[in-house]
Amino acid sequence: MTVVKTSMRNFLAHKGRMALSAVAVLLSVAFVCGTLVFTDTMNTTFDKLFAATSADVTVSPKAAEDDDQGPRTGRPEALPASLVQQVTKADGVKSAEGAVVSMSVTVVDAANKKMGSDNGAPTIAGNWTRNDLKSMDITSGHAPRGPTDVMVDADTAEKHGLQLGDALRTIAVTGDIESRISGIASFKMTNPGATVVYFDTATAQRKLLGRPDAFTNISVTAEEGVADTRLKQHVATALDGAAGGPYKLQTAKEAADSGREDVGSFLDVMKYAMLGFAGIAFLVGIFLIVNTFSMLVTQRTREIGLMRAIGSSRGQVNRGVLVEALLLGVVGSILGVGAGVGLAVGLMQLMGSMGMELSTKDLTVAWTTPVVGLALGIVVTVVAAYIPARRAGKVSPMAALRDAGTPADGRAGWIRASIGLVLTGSGALLLYLTTQADQASEGSLLLGGGVVLTLIGFIVVGPLLAGVVVRAISAVLLRMFGPVGRMAERNALRNPRRTGATGAALMIGLALVACLSVVGSSMVASATQELDKSVGADFIIQSGPSGPIVPKAEKALRAAPDIEHVTSYKMIKAELTAPDGKKETEELVAADPTYAQDLRRETVAGELAAAYGKNAMSVGSDYAERHGVEVGDTMTVAFTGGESAKLKIAAITSDESNVDKGAMYTNVTTAAQYLPADRVPPNMIMFAKAVDGKEKAAYAGLKKALADYPQFTVQDQTDFKQGLKDEVGQLLNIVYGLLALAIIVAVLGVVNTLALSVVERTREIGLMRAIGLSRRQLRRMIRMESVVIALFGALLGLGLGMGWGTTAQKLLALEGLGVLEIPWTTILTVFVGSAFVGLFAALVPAFRAGRMNVLNAIATE
Amino acid sequence: MTTAMTIPRHGGTGGRTAVAARARQLVKAYGSGETRVVALDHVDVDINRGQFTAIMGPSGSGKSTLMHCLAGLDTVTSGEIHLDETEITKLKDKKLTQLRRDRIGFIFQAFNLLPTLNALENITLPMDIAGRKPDAAWLNRVVETVGLADRLRHRPTQLSGGQQQRVAVARALAARPEIIFGDEPTGNLDSRAGAEVLDFLRKSVDELGQTIVMVTHDPVAASYADRVLYLADGRIVDEMFSPTADQVLDRMKDFDARGRTS
């Protein structure tokens, strides 16, 4: 009991010194809990949405299952309207209603402004049914009644200032639907961001499906007292052997579950990525906690010696420190759980500003969240304090008698050196082997091992490196500051273990930043090089997330002036039978013959141009080798939804390529022969070439042609490359943002080390002030020390990270990342930035040191 | 006093007076109301240039406070202190720090040296801080005088307690301050090491013309001084010139006895 009491008193007495450690625990726990609460809330939101929108039983075409992002045709799979009658006759059915839903649409206002979001939330068009009344209320106007009526969801209306009577154009593959807003409907629960428009059933069938006698699914409502699973059985019986079958039947629960699965897998990726970053922050926090307790134990050496002298056992001293750590962990974690909920609310608002609406009404704190947060926070803190606690236990009773004014230099021993060198060395070896690997899977294991080993190795040898690196940095930087600089250098060097651990904490975050920046810019450089090498087209026209390029837009593009040619590019699914009899389902690229100029491909046999001849095609070299295909062979190609064709192999393309690797080409007209007209998919992407010397005019012409279709973009090569760079840059920025947490904790670590050092050196500071060191000089000395520690961490981190990044690039060269580019601007910015971080970290400690009363400082024991 | 006049000095105002520092009506009080404690009670004192002055007194007599105030380490409640011709009680921290750096030397009882610097670096520290080059000839003479020539590259932890205090003495002397303050500089040393340090202090007064003020409670230490001031209850109650240890001890006993009977 006395142990606990003493620990409690110590904890309270030194709460100031523990504050930053508590903040570190708090931040890490908050990030974990925030992530959990946030993703749970998203799940709740989607659960509620899916539960409300699903009918008791939904009947949909089986084929819809295969298409993950909507069919390539841009038209939803449909079932015959007559099926509704059949379903209605089944036992237990109260009512059955045909529904039309298409997600391959874009809605624009009168000014051709897109109404949908750009960040993954779908735009959904459909017919207004009774089932929709379960999840929506019409808040103004009326439901769509005629071919020119459209009803829009209230969130979209509000976001874009839409009012009754405003014109909306809905663009589908089957054509545009021009209509005026007849009503606005509000979701009864949170709609995270989907844009929804409703038409009357006839309009929806005709315009979205292109045929008046079909639906995309049937919503079945059960009679009172009939369970959904029961109803499903009845409907299945009624539909047994029905035309166009078999069909997919889902109960409300199954539909909600499958909807959640889709969203859930995305949410899971996000959750685990964020938890990963929280883990890094925890790792960094460990250094801070170890440093804090080491310093507290050192400062308390005499006190501990006295305890030992009057009869405390080693175990008691040891446990005493651990109990303090436990208290720290508990306090930090409890605050962290609270802060985590706050963080989740903040994240929800952030998402709101980016167009993903979440409501705090759905805020979900599962009971596991605080449990996980507390357990993690406490366990990490206590484990981190274990080494300092053991050291405390080893303090001899003689320490009470010794004058332990300043702690002895914790010299890093040769054991540490050799362990560290062995680890670093074997890590480096693994990294070297990674660069020699010829298979990505084996290489990534080596890379992972190498990264972990070199990281641990660097952490272990950190204190030794601190000596060398700090001297080197000081030689360059601090010498110009004369004696103040020299004292700062000596202070940074006096306890290498402390400096090493503080720097290592910063090293971790910065190493990841450096590594990712190297990989990111290598990605951009490699892609740019590849584009320069192989793309002959001047312009690239891309479809949006809402489906392929609609025929009307294609027509407009083809009519643009100053264009030499426009190339179609369609993906068509087919089952191939190779000459060896093996069957494989593949996606063929059906393109215009000009595609051979737009994308230059090497061939290992035949001429690529010949593949666009009548009833001809090409295959990739890998496929050719696997199936023993040669030029001149004939393949059986069974187009999905169409006829079977015999196509002659006219060329074999080399698979030593990063663009269109393994693609099989055939002419659009060839494919069209074997497919019904509504099965020929629109273009996924298109290419265009300008008439020589008219590039500018052509670019402007193409842009103008797409003015009515804001969902498609046309870019020339320069803009395309820039777009690629921006995309990678954005991704990197998100990752840097998440790494910022680990870096903040590391900076807190620098502040912590300095603050505790200042306390520890009170007498020294007093002495220096007494013999004439001015406040300004004192503050400068502490700032210098901080800068040196920060630069030490930065140098190690950037060096290590560039090594990792370079290795990763060598490995990814197998996957097409052929060019290594080290982003020196980023690296230098981070390095210089670290110096400023050092200055910033020293602000408070330097201020406090400057304010110390000289006399009290001298008198301090 | 003639030797003092021949020693070139840094700082000061040029007009040399026989008094290096003087305090007038010096009051230092802590707290207020009922808990008010007066550490210095209207003290008037002159510290003579080129003399070794010892301040003695029982614990709580105010001797350390007096020294701290004279040295510009502590603020005063009222009264004036002149260092040469500079009135220091009104100075701001910045000026005061400069004054300590350029015109005053310190020797504390313990923890005099920075553990990260070697002996030589510790000695030249005040000048380094000021950005001044130490006068090499003078530095050599000081180092010779305190007998540290072969220990200059050692870190404080590699030096004995006596050696450490000698380094502190050398540091105080090296910058040629107008006045050196010692706060029980031999308090932590055994009698032999203490005697060595005191010898050097004596020598620096005799040979280098240094002014020294030393707080001590050791009669033997006080016997090295030219003049001993006795403090009790924040007042100067007596003084003695060219004392011996026995005389000092006797006087101390008198005070003790008086203190007990009164």
Task: Please describe what this structure looks like.
- The complex is a heterodimer of chains A (861) and B (262).
- Chain A has 861 residues and is an alpha+beta fold.
- Helix content of chain A is 56%, strand content 16%.
- In chain A, a hairpin with a 4-residue loop joins strand 20 (634-639) and strand 21.
- In chain A, helix 2 packs antiparallel against helix 20 (717-760), helix 7 runs parallel beside helix 10 and helix 9 (314-353) packs antiparallel against helix 10.
- Chain B is α/β, with parallel strands linked by helices.
- Chain B has a single domain (2-261), classed as Rossmann fold (3-Layer(aba) Sandwich).
- Chain B has helices spanning 2-6, 63-70, 93-103, 119-130, 136-146, 161-174, 191-208, 219-222, 245-261; strands at residues 19-30, 37-48, 52-56, 78-83, 86-87, 104-107, 179-183, 212-215, 227-232, 235-241.
- At the A-B interface, helix 13, helix 21 and helix 24 of A face helix 3 and helix 4 of B.
Measured by DSSP, the beta-strand proportion of chain A falls in 15-25%
The CATH class of chain B turns out to be: Alpha Beta
- Spatial order of the strands forming the largest sheet of chain B: 6-7-8-3-9-10
Q: Classify the oligomer.
A: heterodimer
Task: Give the total of beta strands of chain B.
Answer: 10
Question: What is shown here, in short?
Answer:
The complex is a heterodimer of chains A (861) and B (262). With 861 residues, chain A is of the alpha+beta class.
Q: What topology does this entry show?
A:
The complex is a heterodimer of chains A (861) and B (262).
Chain A: H1 2-13, H2 15-53, E1 57-61, E2 79-80, H3 83-89, E3 93-99, E4 101-102, E5 106-109, E6 123-127, E7 136-141, E8 149-153, H4 154-160, E9 167-172, E10 175-187, E11 195-199, H5 201-209, E12 214-215, E13 217-222, H6 228-239, E14 247-251, H7 252-299, H8 301-309, H9 314-353, H10 368-393, H11 414-436, H12 440-477, H13 482-494, H14 496-534, E15 539-542, H15 551-558, E16 563-577, E17 583-591, H16 595-598, E18 603-606, E19 616-620, H17 621-627, E20 634-639, E21 644-653, E22 665-667, H18 668-673, E23 685-690, H19 695-705, E24 713-716, H20 717-760, H21 762-770, H22 775-812, H23 824-851, H24 854-859
Parallel strand pairs in A: 6-11, 8-10, 17-22, 19-21
Antiparallel strand pairs in A: 1-13, 1-14, 2-12, 3-13, 4-6, 5-9, 7-10, 8-11, 9-10, 15-23, 15-24, 16-17, 16-20, 16-23, 18-21, 20-21
Helix pairs in contact in A: 1-9, 2-7, 2-9, 2-10, 2-20, 7-10, 7-14, 7-20, 9-10, 11-12, 11-22, 12-13, 12-14, 12-22, 13-22, 14-20, 14-22, 20-22, 20-23, 22-23
Chain B: H1 2-6, E1 19-30, E2 37-48, E3 52-56, H2 63-70, E4 78-83, E5 86-87, H3 93-103, E6 104-107, H4 119-130, H5 136-146, H6 161-174, E7 179-183, H7 191-208, E8 212-215, H8 219-222, E9 227-232, E10 235-241, H9 245-261
Parallel strand pairs in B: 3-8, 3-9, 6-7, 7-8
Antiparallel strand pairs in B: 1-2, 1-4, 4-5, 9-10
Helix pairs in contact in B: 4-6, 5-6, 6-7
